[in-house]
Design goal:
Number of strands: 30
Low-confidence stretches: 1-19, 21-32, 197-205
Number of helices: 6
Mean pLDDT: 76
Shape: elongated
Largest sheet: 9 strands, antiparallel
Strand content: 35-45%
Number of domains: 3
Distance between the termini: 43 Å
Helix content: 10-25%
Length: about 450
C-alpha cells in the first residue's frame, strides 16, 4: 500500500477569483490560520488580478493562472516580463494563508531558480490494472471543488502507484479521499511552513554542495539491495547515474538539503538493465533529501526509499577486476546498441598488462589499472589463420583497443555481479556503430 502524505492546512479550494494588489488582503483571510509555503509563478492581466499558476498557455501574451493571489506587489520582485498589459514572472517561493477562495501573502515572495521549485508536477506514467478502481475514483472528484491538479498512476520507487496532485491539504479533501487513503499518494503544491524550513536555505548552499561532490563518483553497495553496477557521478553541475550499459544525465542543484535533478539526456545501449536502474532514477527525480557524510557516504532519502552510496575511492569493487573474462559483446558507437559475439574471445586483465586471446590472433599490451579506470597502450598481436567470422571479431577487438592518433586508450570499468563493462572514457571520432567498448563476463 502507498500511504497518503497529507499535511495539516485550512479549508477547500473554490473556483479561481480575481486577485488583489498590495495592501488588499482577501476578505476571507483568517487570523491565526496556518501559514503554508509553496512555489509557483504569478500572472496578472487586464482581465484578472495576480494569480498563481504553473503552466501558462503558449500565447502572446501568455494566459493562465489557477489561484487568486492577494497582497502581491510586482515591485518586490525582479525579472518579470510584460506584454499587451499582461505581466508574469517566476517561479517564486510564496508564503501565506489560504482561506478557501484566495491566497494572501504574509511575507514578500522570493525568487526560486528554475528547476528548484518545492513541488514540480509530472513524473513517469505507468499502467497497472490493479489500480484502475483507484484511478477511476480520482477521476470522479471535481478538480475545482477539491483543488486538484493531475491524477493517475506513475512510477514511485520503481513501482506503479496511484497519485493525485492537490494545491492544499484540506479537511474536505481528506474526507473525499478517505475510501482510498491507503491506496493513493497525495502530492501537495503547498505545505505547512511548520513541515519545512524555507529560511534554512542560504545563498551559495547549492554551490557548496556542488563543490564538495564535484568530480566524485558514488557506488551502490550490495547490502543496499541495489545492483552494484549502479553509480552516481557529479561533475561541472551535472549529475549522471549509470548501470551496466546505460546512463542518464542532467543538471542538478541542492536547496535546503533537497536534491533537484531533471535528467536531460540518456544513452540507449541495448542490453539487460538491472531493475534497480529505474528505481534509482525515480528516487533521484523525486526531490529527495541528501546528506554527505565526512566518511565518504552520500545518503539519499526519498519518500519510500533511502539509498546510501559510497565514494568509489573507499568502496569495495562488486567484482574483482583482475581476472580472465569472456567477451560477451562489442559495444558500438553512438551508445545505440551492442553486437553479440558468436565466436569466443577472452580478455585477461593483470596488474600491469592485458592479454587478448582472439579467434585468430593473440595480443598483449601494457595496462594501468587505477581504481576503475583501465589505460591500455598499443597492443602487439601475433597473427594466425582465421575464418571469415573470426576475422570480423578480430577487427572489432583491434578497433576497440586502438586509437586513430596512436595514443593510449582509456576505459571506465563498470562492475556487476556477473561481469564488467569497458566503456571508453572518450568516444573515438568514428562513424556510427563502430566498435568502442566491450562487455565481459566471467570466464567459465
Amino acid at each position: 500500500m502507498v500511504r497518503s502524505t497529507l499535511f495539516a492546512c485550512v479549508v477547500v479550494l473554490a473556483a479561481s477569483a480575481c486577485g488583489g494588489s498590495a495592501g488588499e488582503p482577501g476578505q476571507g483571510s483568517q487570523v491565526g490560520a496556518e501559514v503554508v509555503l509553496g512555489s509557483g509563478s504569478v500572472i496578472e492581466s487586464p482581465d484578472h488580478g495576480p494569480m498563481i499558476g504553473w503552466l501558462f498557455n503558449f500565447s502572446n501574451p501568455p494566459e493562465g493562472g489557477v489561484i487568486a493571489l492577494w497582497n502581491w506587489d510586482w515591485g518586490n520582485v525582479e525579472g518579470e516580463d510584460s506584454s499587451g498589459g499582461t505581466t508574469w514572472g517566476g517561479p517564486y517561493d510564496l508564503i501565506g494563508i489560504w482561506d478557501g477562495s484566495q491566497f494572501t501573502l504574509t511575507e514578500p515572495a522570493m525568487p526560486v531558480p528554475a528547476g528548484a521549485e518545492r513541488f514540480q508536477p509530472g513524473g513517469t506514467n505507468c499502467t497497472d490494472p490493479a489500480l484502475s478502481g483507484t484511478v477511476e475514483f480520482l477521476r470522479s472528484l471535481d478538480p475545482d471543488e477539491f483543488g486538484l491538479g493531475s491524477h493517475g498512476s506513475r512510477l514511485v520507487a520503481g513501482e506503479c502507484a496511484a497519485f493525485v496532485e492537490a494545491y492544499f491539504d484540506t479537511a474536505e479533501l481528506r474526507a473525499a479521499l478517505e475510501p482510498i487513503t491507503d491506496d493513493v499518494q497525495v502530492d501537495l503544491y503547498f505545505r505547512s511552513v511548520a513541515s519545512q524550513s524555507p529560511d534554512d536555505t542560504q545563498p551559495g548552499e547549492s554551490q557548496a554542495f556542488e563543490s564538495l561532490v564535484d568530480g566524485l563518483t558514488f557506488l551502490a553497495q550490495p547490502a543496499e539491495g541495489i545492483d552494484p553496477t549502479v553509480s552516481i557521478s557529479f561533475a561541472d553541475g551535472q549529475l549522471t547515474y549509470r548501470s551496466t550499459c546505460n546512463s542518464q544525465f542532467g543538471p542538478f542543484s541542492v536547496n535546503d538539503d533537497i536534491l533537484v535533478f531533471q535528467g536531460g539526456g540518456t544513452t540507449a545501449v541495448a542490453c539487460d538493465e538491472p531493475d534497480s536502474m529505474s528505481m534509482v532514477g525515480e528516487l533521484l527525480s523525486s526531490r529527495p533529501a541528501v546528506q554527505l557524510d565526512p566518511t565518504g557516504a552520500l545518503t539519499i532519502v526519498g519518500q519510500d526509499r533511502t539509498l546510501v552510496v559510497v565514494n568509489e575511492a573507499i568502496a569495495e569493487p562488486a567484482t574483482p577486476i583482475l581476472s580472465e573474462w569472456d567477451v560477451a559483446s562489442v559495444l558500438l558507437g553512438q551508445g545505440a546498441e551492442s553486437a553479440w559475439m558468436l565466436t569466443s574471445a577472452t580478455i585477461t586483465i593483470e596488474p600491469d598488462r592485458i592479454l587478448i586471446d582472439g579467434p585468430c590472433t593473440d595480443g598483449s599490451a601494457t595496462a594501468i589499472l587505477d581504481k576503475r579506470r583501465l589505460t591500455v597502450t598499443a597492443v602487439d598481436y601475433t597473427p594466425d589463420s582465421c575464418d571469415e567470422q573470426g576475422t570480423e571479431i578480430e577487427a572489432a577487438l583491434h578497433e576497440v583497443f586502438s586509437s586513430p592518433t596512436g595514443d593510449d586508450v582509456a576505459f571506465d570499468i563498470v562492475t556487476s555481479r556477473t561481469g564488467i563493462l569497458l566503456q571508453p572514457v572518450t568516444t573515438p571520432q568514428r562513424s556510427d556503430f563502430r566498435p568502442v567498448g566491450l562487455r565481459l563476463v566471467a570466464s567459465e
